[in-house]
Amino acid sequence: MNDATMKGLTAVILAAGEGKRMRSRQPKVLHPMCGRPLIGYALRLGRAVADRLVLVVGKNADGVRAIAGADVRGVEQSERLGTGHAVLQAKPECGDGAIVVLAADMPLLQAETIERLVTHHRETGAAATILTAVVADPKGYGRVLRQGGRVTRIVEDRDATDDQKKIAEINTSIYCFEASRLWPALAQVKPDNDQGEYYLTDAIAILARAGARIEAVTVSDPTEAMGVNDRKQLAAAALIQRRRILDRLMFAGVTILDPDTTYIEDTVSIGADTVIYPQVLIEGASTIGSECIVASGCQISSTAIGDRVRLKPYCVLTESVVEDGAMLGPFCHLRPKAHVGPDAHIGNFVELKKTTMGRGSKANHLAYLGDATIGEDVNVGAGTITCNYDGFDKHETTIEDGAFVGTNSSLVAPITIGAGSYIGAGSTVTKDVPPDALVVERSPQVTKEGWAARWRAANVAKKAGKTKKEA
Ligand code: UD1
Ligand code: CA
Question: How many domains does the chain have?
Answer without folding.
Answer: 2
